[in-house]
Amino acid sequence: MSFLNLNLNLTYQNIHFRHPSSSSSLPIPLPPLPPGISRSFIPTPHGDLEILHTTTTSSSRQSALFFIHGGMGSASVWLEYLSFFSQQQQQNIPCYAISMRGHGGSWYPSYLRMVYGTTKGDLTGDVVSGIRWAVDRERGQRKQQQLGRGVIKGQQGRQGKEGRGGEKGDDVEAKEEVEMVLIGHSSGGGLAQYILSAGLLGGLSVKIKGLVLMGAVPGFGSIPIYLTWFRLDPLFALRLLLHLGHPNSPLSHPSLVRLIFFSNDLLPDSYLSRFMSFMSRYESLLWPLGMARSFADSERVLLRICGWGETTKQEQKQGQVERVLVIAGERDKIMTQPIVQRLADWYRAAYERLVVEEKKIDGVMVGSENETVDEEVEGSGGPKDTAGRGVRFALVPGAGHHCQNDVGWEVGARKVLAFYRQLL
C-alpha cells in the first residue's frame, strides 16, 4: 500500500470513452480457447451475448455449472475453471460461462448507455438469457442421447409395443428439469443471489442444486467493501477526478489491478497484461449502486435451492447437505475474511430459521457450532474450512480477489469440486 501514497499510478492507456468497434478504439481481443471449450453467441433483442461452454457431453445426468463474472470481467475469467471441470475424469461436467452486455465478446452499449443507463436488472436479464440457453442445450443433448439409445434398441429387434413405450418415456424425459449449480464471482455473485431471491428462473425448467459465492458481493449490501477499497487506495478520488469520472479509473493501471484483484507479486506480469486486455472498456455504475444496500433475502435464496430434503437423516448428521458454498481468497483485500465470514453466517442464520422456526426446510441442526470440512485438499494449507447449517465456508490460501485466476487457483477449484460432489 505504501507505493500508492507516493505514486498516483495515473495512466490514460486503459481509459476508453468510445465503443470498441469505433475506428479510434482498439477492439477487445477474444482469447483462444483451450481444448474442450467452445464459444457461442446468444441472440437477444439488443445484441448477441457471448457464452463459453464445454463441448463434451456426458451420458449421465450431471448437474451443469453456470459461471457468472463480476465487474470488469467476462466469461474469459473462468477459462481455468472451465478447463479444470470439463477434464475431470469420469465426470465430464457440463460448464457454461456468460459474458454480460458490455463485457467480453458480447454486444457493447455506448459509453453513456452502459455507464449511466445499464442497471442491475438489465445485467440480470443477460444472465437469465444465458441460463435459458444452457438449459435448452442440455435438454437438446439429452434428447439426442435418448434418440440414439432408441435407435440401438430398434436395431436389436425392439418390438412395436416396446417402441411406443420408449417414445413415451423419451417425451417424459425431455420435459425433465435440468439441474444446475450457480457460481458467481464478486458482483456476479451478487446477481446470482438477486436472481434466486427474486425468483427470476421460474418457467425455465431448471433446478438449482447449489450456489457458490466466490468473493461475492453479499446480499446484505456492499458498502463495507467500497469503504475498504477507499482505504486501500487513498488517491482513488483524485485519480477518478483526473479521469473525468471514468468507472475504470480504480483499475486503470497494472499496479492497481494487482493491488485490488490479486494477492502479491508472484503473478507474472505477462499474465496480468493478458488479463487486463480482456477487461471491459467501461463499466456500469448502476450495477454496484444497485447492490450498495440490501438487495436479496437470504431465506428466499435458500428456499429456491432444491434438494434440501433429498438426503437421509444420517447423511445430514454427517454434514452432507451444504448447498451454499461461500469461498474467497485468503488474501482478498476487498472481500475481506470478516465480510465473507459474515456472509456465510448470514445464510447459516437463515437456514436455522427455516429449519427450526419456520420448518420450511427438512434439515437437521447438529449443535450450534460449525464442523470442520472432511475433504482434505492437497497442498491447501492455511485455515481450515467449515461446514454446517447448510453452508460451507472455504478460503483459498494465498489468493486474492480473483482467486479463480490468481496463483494457486487450482486449490480453490478442488474445493469447489468437493462441494459439487457432495451435492450429487
TrEMBL record:
Biased composition (Low complexity): 143-158
InterPro entries in the cross-refs: AB_hydrolase_1, AB_hydrolase_fold
KW Ubl conjugation (keyword) present: no
Pfam families: Abhydrolase_6 (PF12697)
Keywords: Hydrolase
Organism name: Neurospora hispaniola
Biased composition (Basic and acidic residues): 159-172
Region annotation (Disordered) ranges: 139-172
Superkingdom to which the source organism belongs: Eukaryota
Family: Belongs to the peptidase S33 family. ABHD4/ABHD5 subfamily.
One GO term (biological process): lipid homeostasis
Protein name: Alpha/Beta hydrolase protein
GO CC, any one term: mitochondrial inner membrane
Gene3D superfamilies: alpha/beta hydrolase (3.40.50.1820)
Domain AB hydrolase-1: 65-352
Gene Ontology terms, MF aspect: lysophosphatidic acid acyltransferase activity; phospholipase A2 activity
